[in-house]
Automatic annotation (TrEMBL):
CDD domains: SRPBCC_CalC_Aha1-like
Name this protein carries in UniProt: ATPase
InterPro entries in UniProt: ASHA1/2-like_C, START-like_dom_sf
Source taxonomy: Bacteria, Pseudomonadati, Bacteroidota, Sphingobacteriia, Sphingobacteriales
Ranges for domain Activator of Hsp90 ATPase homologue 1/2-like C-terminal: 11-127
UniProt similarity note: Belongs to the AHA1 family.
Species in which this protein is naturally found: Pedobacter steynii
One Pfam assignment: AHSA1
Length: 140
């Protein structure tokens, strides 16, 4: 099994970062404007990118600490993977560790997603530090 792992340091309060990763306002600024999200364990978050939609069941929400999603519908290589965001505040900065675990193999799609998760963290940083992320629609 393969995993994607990234860490980024944001000059933003941990509560702002957690909010950006769990609310419609935050996720639409950071990832895609076509979404249906709710900060509630068991809820199925939906993120659309043109004709493609990713669906993640929220498994864990620990405010200002951890978010865990499990992919139930997406590209076949994503189904069954988990995406986690672990947050830690140190010296006035928030460290965000993103992991997507459970990949069957390192493929071309895995490498594409690895890049895009890094860009997601950059967009999150822009949103939390400057008030404006770079979502999918802006990248088109």
């Amino acid at each position: 099994m393969a995993s994607i792992e990234h860490i980024n340091v944001l000059r933003a309060p941990i509560a702002k970062v957690y909010e950006a990763l769990t609310t419609k306002e935050g996720l639409s600024s950071v990832w895609t404007t076509e979404l249906n999200v709710k900060a509630e364990p068991g809820f199925i978050n939906e993120f659309s990118f043109g004709k493609d939609t990713d669906r993640f069941e929220i498994k864990t929400l620990v405010p200002n600490q951890r978010i865990l999603w499990h992919c139930i519908d997406s590209d076949p290589e994503w189904i069954g993977t988990s995406v986690s965001f672990d947050l830690e505040e140190k010296n006035g900065k928030t460290f965000v560790t993103l992991k997507q675990t459970g990949w069957a193999d390192v493929t071309e799609f895995y490498r594409h997603c690895n890049y895009n998760w890094a860009f997601f963290l950059y967009s999150l940083k822009c949103y939390c530090e400057e008030g404006k992320g770079i979502n999918y629609q802006q990248r088109q």
